[in-house]
Specification:
The chain is of the alpha+beta class. The chain contains 4 helices and 4 strands, in the order αββαββαα. A 4-stranded antiparallel beta sheet has the order 1-2-4-3, covered by helices on one side. Helix 2 crosses helix 3 (79-92). It starts with a helix and ends in a 7-residue tail after the last helix.
Length: 107
């Protein structure tokens, strides 16, 4: 029952992510870990999306190529809130620090 519930919340969360214009879930996860990436050809700044999600108290794992999501039992109660905050973060289109910051030099 726990395994079936985890698989269902993974499917439900992935569907919520895929419904947001500009991003998509990648791969075909079996359970509760998946990656959020941009649509091909998109100029959306995932670092900016991640910063927006941080400001909304969501902790997405930043990895090369995307943002990783790991679901745990109980996350099924917050899928709608997560999807709303993710959609707002994508819509904000905020430029991430990585896009504008200059590291290790004098500006």
């Amino acid at each position: 029952d726990v395994v079936a519930g985890a698989a269902k919340q993974g499917v439900d969360t992935r569907a919520a992510v895929d419904a947001i214009e500009g991003i998509r879930g990648t791969g075909e996860p079996d359970m509760s870990v998946f990656e959020i990436s941009t649509e091909p050809g998109s100029d959306l700044d995932l670092e900016g999306v991640s910063e927006e999600m941080d400001a909304r108290n969501w902790a997405l794992d930043r990895q090369q190529g995307g943002l990783h999501v790991m679901l745990s039992p109980g996350h099924d109660r917050v899928i709608d809130a997560f999807a709303e905050d993710l959609a707002a973060s994508v819509a904000a289109g905020r430029t991430g620090a990585g896009a504008s910051a200059v590291y290790g030099s004098v500006v």
